[in-house]
Fold these 2 entries.
Entry 1:
Amino acid sequence: MSTEEKKNSQISLDSEILSPSTEKEVSEIVREIYSKQLPVEISGTGTKKVFGYNLQTAKKLSLSKLSGIIDYKKEELYIKVKAGTPLQEIEKILDENNQELAFEPIDFGYMINSQSNKGTIGGYVACNFAGSRRFKVGSVRDHILGFKGVNGKGDIIKSGGTVVKNVTGYDLSKLISGSFGTLVVLTEITLKVSPKKQSQITVIVYSDEIKKISNLFDKILSSSNEVSAATFIPEEPSNKNYENTKNKIFKFNDLDQEGSFLAFRIEGDKRSIEERLKELKVELDLSNFKSSILDVHQSIPFWKKVNNLELFSGTKNNILRAVMPPAKCEAFSKFLNKNYKYYIDWCGSLFWIEVLDKDDEKINKIKNFIVENSGYLTIIKKSENFDFQDTLFTIDNTRLMISKKIKESFDPKKLFNPGRMYRDL
Amino acid sequence: MTELALPKIDKDTISRKDQIVSHLKKITKDENILSEIEEIKPYETDGLAAYKQTPLAVVLPENTKEVSEILKFCNEENIKVIPRGAGTGLSGGALPLQDAILLGLGKFNKILEIDFENKCVVTQPGVTNLGITHAVQHKGYYYAPDPSSQLACSIGGNVAENSGGVHSLKYGTTTNNILGVEMVMMDGTITRIGGKTLDQEGYDLLGLVCGSEGLLGVITEVTVKILRKPQSVRAALIGFPTVEDGGNCVSDIISSGIVPAGMEMMDKALIDATDKFSKAGYPKDAEVLMIVELDGTKSEVDGLLNKVSEIAKQNNSNSMKLSNNEKERLAFWSGRKAAFPACGAMAPDYYCMDGSIPRGKLSLILKEINELSKKYNLAVANAFHAGDGNLHPLIMFDGSDKEQLRKTEEFGAEILKACVKHGGALTGEHGVGIEKRELMCESFNNDDIQQQLNIKKSLDEKNLLNPGKVYPILRKCAEEGRVHVHRGEEKFPDLPRF
């Protein structure tokens, strides 16, 4: 009997934290908890613990030992990894090969405790929150080619594979992305990787007028000049209870710190960047605005800060994530006005909003506005001592009913992260 | 064709036909229900014309409420339902059953809203794929996924099959280009998934439904993303003296960081066939021919095209033409687009396969296919969406010779198994349908398939919606599975297939 097999034959649920190091062990553990009806909280390194409702399970299933790169085929543009692999490790090896994950993974570490901590790939896929390039290249789910995992009965299941064109059976890779660990314990994930662009610049356009900003977003979205990111960073509210971090975070030689600004990124080879910049200047009427340009050395760190929510570094307040139809950008910005600290990403679609601890009751108001305007809200970080009831996620009754049925088909005894997304699921 | 296993026929349902039809007449107008044999005939098959079944009746509802009431009634009465869009699918996904109602979405043929502000179009599912582009092209927009049948195939069918196309290499397939759907579940429940926002919260039901081949719900409305047309599009037509050189060139282009809009490959057999058929002027000395299309801004396209030609030269290309205008570019494509009809002219019958493999295995699989061709003594021509490793081998045979037919089927199954063995998939874009159903166990084990069946059961408890498709009935890997075209008699002879 090999060492691994020995371990497998002695699956014990004695300790509070169960840390399997192989897929088979995960399966054995789940079979045990299935027979004993023991719900578990699934975690990687715990960086996304703040998302969703708090769990109070007796047992925790940690995937941090299920780590490592299984297969990286640079020329086939995919990487297959174990689910507990740190995102940083994946990004490092891709970077060495001049490749990247096109969906620009967000580093939530800053928001949670003021320092970088990207967590594991499994955790990242489980929340499906893509970064600034989303509107151009798709979300996390669009980059998952396949996965393996263990369902709520302990069966090892897979879907997809390593090729981009594959319509064999239901596309479960999509379904498990954003399921917050409530359907399967992920064990293996195959991600599509992309070649890095040769260079980039960022154009800063200074304006406080939201009407003009939303018009610029629209023109960028309508342009064939392939802008790969666009954000609006407004002046912070005068309310002293919000920490003013904008000028500290966005400190660059070529960025004027006075007032609000829109920033957009052009990526590609140098000649193409120049050509597109020239055309965009005309398309966006940039001669009517004050503007400046961040070169590649400033542009790269600039977008890291935008992407990683550094504006909300270490905050104790609520952090909301709202996605709106792009045409509602102006109306929603006006609604938020100077009452909240917020910024807009995804070229007018994604709003990150900080709401003061004592303003908790206002969250419902914000949520109503969002839902009435065909958007959706996810409360990412909750301030302490507040009963959010059913407000953390946005879902209607019919979809909730369907979601419950799907949950049951994967995890009939509701063992995985019970109640994390919705009560009773 | 080999005998096709179908779900057990419910004789009770057939005996209740009159009663069922009269109930359906309470839900929708009389003229929307077809129950006479001559009216039903056009619906007895889809793009996989080798299989035919006559449904109990055809119902053509006019709105979502009617769809919901029909499904609710059928669910309560245990009547099977087969949803159908334009019926152009190549894997038999809309094949009727004798004891089933065929639910045609043909009357859902209107575009509901063109929303340039939100860069999307809200449409009924019966609108054609190309119809969407036609509706927005005056402002310089288009809908990106471009299955070769785009002139006729419906967007609802595209959602069901997660259709791709030549340009999915850069722009993705249907699943990457839709924002929302309205869907009716088998019990009649109407639900909206997604909308005009990017992504949706909660379980990605849109991702689950897209490509579910009509097994989980009936799509009654689709919101698709529209894109701005690229400023410049150019193509290169490149010949290689060996298959290996061509295959290596594909890998080198991709790993150099270039993402072409499309990258197609044809082998010698197909070059010869299409050249006779379409006079595209393809090089005679090439073992494989590649069309690489690039789009973007003008200088970017020019620059990338130069880079592509350099990579091709390093891989021993023996001929190269670069398009300098739209006419030249379309001329490059003319032969490729004539590939299927050209094969139809070469042999009484051909089977079109649809597998996918890792790009790096292109020359290997081509070699294996050619060895199999010798083994079975059957000619084969190969068309590849090389950029994303999607193969369409076309096996030529004479269907009137039973032994040849049997051999062809074996040959085809061996190709698909080889795709899976090399790390690829059974189907890249045509879907499983009834065609590759029994081959599913090549890709999945029992637990994998059981999980998928559990999902199906959770949303359609009685297995009434499009039963007998996708999942094996025999639970053994029978060897079936290709598009069968007899004497060029395709179900949709006017549609280009590539």
Entry 2:
Amino acid sequence: MDMRRWTPSLLALAALAIVPFASSQIEAQTPKRGGILKYVVPGEFPTMDGHRENTFALIHPLAPFYSVLIRVDPDNPNSGTYVCDLCTEMPEPADGGKTYTFKIRKGVKFHDGTGLTAKDVEASFQRIIFPPTGVLSSRVAQFTMVDSVTAPDDETLVFKLKYPSGAFIPALATPYNFIYSKAKLDADQHWYEKNVMGSGPFIFEEWQPGAFVKGKRNPDYYHPGKPYLDGYEAIIAKTQTLRVQAIRGDQAATEFRGIPPKARDDLVAALGKDITVQESDWNCVLILSPNHKAKPFDDPRVRRALSLALDRWQGSKDLSRISIVKAVGGIVFPGHPLAATKEELEQIAGYWPDINKSRAEAKRLLKEAGVPDLKFTLTNRSVDQPYTIVGTWMIDQWKQVGITVEQKVEADGPFYESLKAGKFEVGLEFNCQSVVNPLVDVSKFRPDAGDQYSQIEGKDLVKLHEAMNRTADVAEQRRLMRQYEKLILDEQANNFVTLWWYRIIAHRSYMKGWKITPSHYLNQDLSGVWIDK
Amino acid sequence: MLVYVVKRIALMIPTLFGAAVLVFVLMRAIPGDACMLRMATGGGSIDPHVLEACHAELGTDQPMLVQFLAFMKGLLTLDFGKSQWSGRPIMHEVGLRFQLSLQVAIMATLTAILIAIPLGTISAVRQNTWIDYVVRSFSIAGVALPSFWLGILIILGILITSKALWGSPWMPPITYVPIWVDPVTNLSMLIWPALATGYRYSAVATRMTRSAMLEVLREDYVRTARAKGLFHKLIVRRHALRNALLPVVTVIGIEFAFLMGGLVVTEQVFNLNGLGKLFVESVQNHDYNMTQALVMMVVGIFAITNLAIDILYGWLDPRIRYR
């Protein structure tokens, strides 16, 4: 597969489609040097190892310390284009799309002064893709197409794939793929769980567990002129009210995850021109998962009725005023070239433009299945935004076709235990990804996926998903994606997409050079951020 | 006295053991585990092999008895091992938070004492006057207002007032600096939670002081002191208040112990990286080792505080002697 041939056209389309809805103009100005950026982080990382962890709470404070091989274009993060960070240019795939050869920059140094070579990059990806016994890597499944990774010399890195895959380059650009020092890894594979030592724009300065992480400017950073900041302080603050107040009281310039519309409006009302708001569709979605082993949800007619009762088009308008959800979409991030168009969506049960017709069909199906007065429990996470809000909205929607639902809200531990053990009737869960990589992102809907809780069966989905991943033809990928989507959302009615999230970032207007992305995991190395006070 | 103290310390052993068994069983009765949480809450896919490896790493795949014996060994050697969430030594994690929690507890206790004892005394001495009514209303409000809500109001009040005064809103610092490093930053951060919790804490103590004072002021020896012609202030301060303090000391002591680990919501409102927050997070994260260690620490603090209160009784009231 020739990635370079298809990627630009695919991504140009994406650039047009995935446009962030910035409510204020991001002015092009000459960056100023200096200052310490303070921002709040709504969570805390368990360990410091990016290869092991899954949470944004690790990316926000620690990503500025590390380099990556390639990344989403920081100057145009919504374009979906990938650019080199440690490599010198994006490679031309060879061997029918099965070999990628990267040239690594010369003269890059780790923060301890040692040189970074292709051997370090190789050691890092060996750990991510083929972790040694006793080492946890959370992204092994993203690299199932990789056969080997080698560094024949200090400046060359070669990935050999088992088959050509459009999911490979986006997987490489995952922001957790920090490049570690081979020497440190050789001495102790667990060293990075408790220590930081990278080659990124900032040097680790201090960490107080539960409180903050501080970094200072790396004077030897290999991107000339960057970073602009003297340093930063990532302050852990788990309460949303406090985070918003901290921005208002200028104890922090922003938080990078996202705030609800009400908090945005409060900040704008309180701070006026001193606050800037950037908004974007968000590559996270709430998924409704009926338990196929629990009666009557073993009957596809009942499951289908659940989706038909939801007026997603109106719900998008109403809920986006109070919650962090907005876009109506199928299983692929809305706006991506592989996503369903509005016309295609309207052919799927639950997305029909006429809600009365849809609800009449829902009632008919319930009656036919012998459960016209269906009652069930919706198992939900005890997280307001957007779980319980969307859950409450759905209960009202279902009520309109005669379904009575009780919402059972659980803390994360019991919630995931219920899902894992199959002790639920219908659950509301989520899928949240960093790089928009639909071919990998939709693997959640496969029966054999580790996070597929609906206990679905059948090999047709697996075959379709694998076929999608093994073709280089974008049109073919799109065609297969529609079949896959139709099976999941309509014909088999396995899982249902509710509404896609909507990301709102309010930051102090003196913070410049940061651009919103469709993911709270991306563009967080802060190398381009500067302060204009 | 020494024999009494030794006996009391010996009695702590079954208390600690009972608490240890209880927390061990209860933690494992909560559905879910740290590995699943860590992987599922990130939103990505979960690899069953990674999950299995994680369980092996944390030791949660071991039989219950093995886990319990390891916990008991840790308890006896005061080495609770590593956090199952962060992998860091528990004593290090607790130590970081301990100084903050201790400072807030001391400041809140001092605030409470400074409010409660004078107000409770005045309220009793001026019983059924307007002063008494004001003090009683003030203390009832303190009991009724949750301290976290008061904390939110304090922050909002500071934001609004500072904007009105200086044109831009200001709020207290949200990262802790030890008092010996930067006393101004330290106090400007901690004074507000100390006030919020100290006020609530004082409300109970004020009412207790008032009741105890009313009782003591009706005692025969107070009447005798008056008959002897002693000054009113001297009677109140030297003869009545000292004897009325016994129940007040109990309340203050228990509240102090509670403040060391129970300021969960207030810590979140003011972003205090204290023991209460660590406690809740360790339960939420299914971090068995950390929760067990914290429970044992809080049980220990309560036991020691109770012992200290009993010893203080003897000093306050010489009639009380322990054998």
